[in-house]
Write a structure and sequence with these properties.
Helix content: 55-70%
Number of domains: 2
Largest sheet: 4 strands, antiparallel
Number of helices: 9
Distance between the termini: 86 Å
Strand order of the largest sheet: 2-1-3-4
């Protein structure tokens, strides 16, 4: 029984080494994903997904070394979570640095026209753009006033004209306001009780 507890709780590498390994891998992945572009973060195709899955498996040993202990794995995970919390908090408190680290949104469609050079630079095919538009209820690129690749990798679309649902909502709101006005008039003209 002593061997089991020893294997579970006795780290194979010194914790300081594990800390240094984890920080180094974290920084490397942050820089690598930033240089890889926003596409890696939000618009995954099957190839991107495979790369991210293999990448996580590849760097696993760089973080834990030859340590298979439970304590070593939990320590590495705790360091990753703490480091991520600290980085996110630091960037939140320093918005200029956050904008530099994350970049800025990129316009891909303007006034119904696809900006092909920007698509190429972000490595997004026109087919992927159209597919993302369809998922958000857009059936014709010419209806788009602006499409942006956001800093987090999501594609957002702003339509030239409101959708049928938006028009219906506006009509219903106007009707309710008219009804409210009529009710207020009726309440004001009724004799006092």
């Amino acid at each position: 029984m002593h061997v089991i507890w020893n294997d579970l709780l006795q780290p194979g590498n010194p914790l300081l080494e594990k800390l240094i390994r984890t920080v180094a891998v974290y920084v490397f992945l942050l820089v690598g994903l930033r240089l890889g572009g926003k596409r890696e973060l939000g618009q995954l195709n099957p190839f991107d997904l495979v790369v991210l899955l293999v990448l996580s498996n590849t760097v696993q040993n760089a973080i834990i070394g030859n340590d298979n202990s439970l304590l070593g794995g939990l320590f590495g995970a705790a360091v990753l979570l703490a480091l991520n919390y600290l980085v996110v908090r630091f960037l939140f408190l320093h918005p200029k640095l956050d904008r530099f680290a994350e970049g800025k949104a990129i316009i891909l469609v303007k006034d119904g026209h696809v900006l092909t050079e920007r698509l190429k630079r972000e490595m997004i095919t026109q087919r992927e753009l159209i597919s993302a538009a369809r998922r958000q209820g857009v059936h014709d690129i010419r209806q788009i006033d602006c499409a942006r690749l956001e800093v987090g990798g999501a594609l957002t679309f702003i339509m030239k004209e409101p959708s049928a649902d938006e028009r219906r909502f506006t009509e219903l709101t106007a009707r309710l306001e008219r009804m409210e006005g009529i009710l207020n008039k009726l309440a004001g003209s009724s004799p006092a009780a």
